[in-house]
Amino acid sequence: MHKGGIFVKxxxxxxxxxxxxxxxxxxxxxxxxxxxxxxxxxxxxxxxENFSAxxxxxxxxGEKVRIVPVKDVIQPRYKIEGKGQVFPGMISDxxxxxxGKTFVLEGAxxxxxxxxxxxxxxxxxxxxxxxxxxxxxxxxxxxxxxERKEGLENHAYExxxxxxxxxxxxYLAKKAYESGAKADSIETYEMPSLSERLSEHPxxxxxxxxxxxQTQGLLxxxxxxxxxxxxxxxxxxxxxxxxxxxxxxGNCVSACDKNSTYTxxxxxxxxxxxxxxxxxxxxxxxxxxxxxxxxxxxxRSSSYAVKLATMIGVDGLIISEEGFGNPxxxxxxxxxxxxxxxxxxxxxxxxxxxxxGASQSLADAAPEADAVVxxxxxxxxxxxxxxxxxxxxxxxxDIIAGGxxxxxxxxxxxxxxxxxxxxxxxxxxxxxIGAKSx
Amino acid sequence: MRPSLFLYLTVTNNPYIIERxxxxxxxxxxxxxxxxxxxxxVHAGWNLVTSxxxxxxxxxxxxxxxxxxxxxxxxxxxxxxxxFLNYLEExxxxxxxxxxxxxxxxxxxxIDLDFRQLDFMLMSKxxxxxxxxxxPLN
Lengths: 438, 138
Description:
- The complex is a heterodimer of chains A (438) and B (138).
- Chain A has helices spanning 38-45, 154-178, 194-199, 239-243, 261-265, 268-276, 295-312, 326-340, and strands at residues 8-16, 19-22, 27-28, 33-36, 51-59, 65-74, 77-81, 100-106, 108-113, 122-125, 140-148, 185-191, 206-214, 220-224, 227-228, 235-237, 247-251, 282-291, 316-320, 344-351, 372-377, 381-384, 389-392, 414-417.
- In chain A, strands 5, 6, 9, 10, 11 and 23 form a 6-stranded mixed beta sheet that branches. In chain A, strands 16-18-13-19-20-21 form a 6-stranded mixed beta sheet, sandwiched between helices.
- In chain A, helix 8 (326-340) links the parallel strand 19 (316-320) and strand 20 (344-351).
- Chain A has 8 helices and 24 strands.
- Chain A is globular and about 60 Å long.
- The termini of chain A are far apart.
- Chain B is of the alpha+beta class and 138 residues long.
- Helix content of chain B is 39%, strand content 14%.
- Chain B has a 4-stranded mixed beta sheet.
- In chain B, helix 2 runs antiparallel to helix 3 (82-97).
- Chain B is globular.
- The A-B interface holds A 117-119, 153-155, 216-220, 230, 253-254, 293-296, 298, 323-329, 352, 354, 359-360, 363-364, 399, 401, 404, 419 and B 48-51, 53-58, 60-61, 84, 87, 90-91, 94, 97, 100, 107, 110-111, 114-115, 117-118, 121-126, 129, 138.
């Protein structure tokens, strides 16, 4: 029995979505097709102060459709029991989430598309070579295409676009649930009080997750309960809060390794730690930390995160990075400081090793970083076929991150680095790239 | 703003910064030139305030680069900080290894403005904290 403290338990009620269509009423049909009333949806997400135009389109797996430039991807979720609502501090109150029941449209995604920072957004192809690299070619996508009002600054445009995406995700899950959709599967996640967790499985190593969030500045930020993560010191959070959207993406870094809100909601590192809990490790919690631009911030956050891990008394830390270059310094600081106090680390990153894979993969390195998982080489070249339909705006493909002059060939094919493909080298491991040895 | 104990120096090749930041030094050159200048200043006892690799840009993407340095007011002959030097040397070697380094003015005006503004936005909080902004952020 659980004694003392708060016992957190979250039930994810997942209803499968196998198709997506426009229709008169927003509901999940008997055959698992998500039907959406387009006008009602657009009215719900409209923002006349910031948008000159907003439209929505649908993209299904296997279609000859390209979505570009992609800003964020969000999974529709709606809290049906428990305190607070999804995306707290963003479109909902700031009440602590992570307990009760949350309804999930599994297999559906909201994709936001806008010309915010032209060169740092991504591509999602629903078929062809590019589809193999993005996990969002397998989801039933409702794409919001938003255009800013003249004079609206980039960061205000980003914020408005971000909010529209969250609102759409909430709308879809709420309407589907209210129309009687039932869960196909139920997953339960628990996180007891720290004292109780620490006393469990005394024979197993205590492992925490150090979750690095992109926070380099405007348009490169993440948010927790609506707070800009740049302004926090590392803190403990329940993994179930993450599942309820307490952490969201607000960033326009290169598309391959930015953690979209969808991957925060479905973080595979957290899922795997739950899977291994009680078997070969004791999963004791999650620490979120930032990746700031100033070196003083880097030193403060890495020292403080490791101090928190020490206070908890962990034996090991799984550390995931977001982005590349500047955050490599944070990753290595986190690693070396933890190892120096006797905490074993495993790092998850991706590589920028040049098109031939021969260059140095990270901007920083240390001998202590001797257990590293890679999510792939973002400089690898892929050729994307011509598509029948483009959702969004194509004129920037040439200069999108990972694209280059001449990327868009006269025959409509595009030669790009993986960097340009949304989620292709996800440093949370939410990716299709893997390696096998024989 | 509290009176600062530090002197600040901003080295940049971005004209957008010069109009908005006190005491910024405009270099006519590439991002690599900015890093090389910052490295020489670190040798001369200046400390790095910002990471030379902020912003997740590859050398073939962002033509602009800005680095903020500091030193204690009234203290001369500060020794070289080798940690800062190491950051710069590593950043420089990444740029030197790049097949293409973007030149200032290489892109169309619309794209170029994105790059100039983004460089400023990423550094704006630092400028604010160091009391270097000529006018407040909106």
